[in-house]
Write a structure and sequence with these properties.
elongated, four-stranded mixed β-sheet, 16 helices, about 55% helix, about 425 residues, alpha+beta
């Protein structure tokens, strides 16, 4: 047997296995890099980062080149291994070398290099990008032919490429991958979830709206303006459905204390009301507030009756969270108890409860705790009772004016809806 030809074949076999392994590690290493960090490094003048971004800008060329190199290496290695088997032991040697090559390829040309590339992308990617950039220019015609054939294959929809859109779960993983601070990640999730929320979910219900009845005594109106903690109040005649406009409290300083104040003088500082159709999605309403330079709207139903008020601050809180820093004091209507339960007013908004306590009470139907209880019972309770909604035990404590005024709620491990 010619020792020179045997040594030559062994050298070729090692070269082709190394080529296949390099392509595998290059693919995993480059694709595992953090794109955000790459762009920052490229802006700082890192040549290798710019080279990698240039390759990633044309993923079809990059993948085409890697696939070509990997297949050439695997096929050439199989051919050389067959020749070696024939030289060493004839037909039996071919079978032996085929089995041995399969193991060697798996370890040294696939699994091993890919694992190394995934674990050390910063070490692999710069070297791989330098070599692949040169190979891309050298093999441009062949890569183009492969890409044209691939595009024709998908154009005829023999296999349909799927479109992938980010959901909240994907964004959570993305936030982890790019090392987003928790607050920033919560804001991104809040933006994505806005499409599933309407003004009805965040509005102050009509029964809780504080406003100025212009028909009240002037002294009572002045006292209300002095005591209010709100920045804007609706002004109406008799009832909220007959709303005249919105008064900014800072404008009240121009007439408070003025002798002989009249209602007409107060109305001079009232801005015309802005009405919002119920069911309006929060992204749409946010754009409307921005376009009209408004911060306060009256939510109305299809009959024009006022259902509540929505503010710009309420929408922003869906994105950034509560503006206050003391979580335990965000809502006076939600109070902790010594046994681990929470005393909650029936008028408390379910979304506020979930946000403050990190719960998952259902929000698809009713908007308040009272509404959730009545919706589950399908009747107005006549006396105190206990019920279970999902993983939450609710004990009705106070009923007045055909509504639940207070309830004790505790999170449990049950998953049914029952009453007792």
């Amino acid at each position: 047997m010619d020792e020179h030809s045997l040594g030559f074949l062994l050298s070729l076999l090692l070269v082709f296995i190394a080529l296949s392994g390099f392509m595998a590690s290059a693919e995993t290493g480059i694709l595992a890099l953090n794109r955000h960090r790459l762009r920052q490094q490229a802006q700082a003048g890192h040549r290798s980062s710019r080279r990698i971004l240039k390759l990633l800008a044309h993923p079809d060329r990059l993948i085409g080149l890697i696939r070509i190199g990997s297949h050439v290496g695997n096929i050439a290695a199989a051919t050389v291994a067959t020749l070696l088997g024939l030289k060493l032991a004839g037909s039996a040697g071919v079978i032996l070398t085929a089995g041995l090559l399969a193991f060697v390829t798996l370890v040294f040309a696939e699994a091993g290099p890919r694992t190394f590339g995934a674990n050390h992308p910063e070490r692999i990617a710069p070297v791989a990008a330098f070599l692949l950039s040169g190979l891309t220019r050298l093999m441009q015609p062949l890569i183009r032919v492969v890409n044209i054939a691939t595009n024709l294959f998908f154009r005829f929809q023999i296999v349909k490429p799927g479109k992938h859109s980010l959901n909240t779960a994907d964004l959570r993983h993305l936030g982890d991958d790019v090392f987003l601070p928790p607050q920033n990640q919560r804001m991104l999730l809040g933006v994505m979830e806005l499409d599933n929320i309407t003004v009805n979910d965040v509005m102050v219900p009509r029964g809780e709206v504080q406003g100025i009845n212009i028909e009240d005594d002037i002294d009572d109106i002045i006292e209300q303006l002095r005591r209010t903690q709100h920045t804007r109040l609706p002004v109406y005649r008799g009832e909220l459905n007959d709303c005249i406009g919105i008064l900014h409290i800072r404008n009240s300083t121009r007439f408070i204390g003025k002798p002989g104040l009249t209602r007409a003088e107060i109305l001079q500082y009232v801005r015309e009301p802005y009405f919002v159709p119920e069911g309006t999605a929060l992204p749409t309403q946010l754009l409307q507030f921005q376009k009209l330079k408004r911060r306060f709207g009256l939510v109305v139903d299809e009959y024009g009756d006022v259902q509540g008020i929505v503010t710009l601050e309420a929408i922003l809180e869906e994105i950034v969270g509560e503006f206050t820093t003391d979580a335990s004091g965000n809502h006076a209507e939600i109070q902790p108890q010594a046994d681990g339960s929470w005393l909650i007013e029936g008028s408390a908004n379910i979304r506020d409860i979930n946000r403050q306590l990190q719960w998952q009470l259902p929000t698809e139907g009713a908007k308040t705790l009272n509404g959730l209880i009545l919706e589950t019972l399908e009747t107005i309770p006549e006396s105190a009772l206990s019920m279970r909604v999902g993983n939450y035990l609710i004990e009705v404590l106070q009923i007045r004016d055909h509504a639940v005024k207070a309830a004790r709620v505790m999170r449990t491990q049950a998953a049914s809806a029952t009453t007792a």
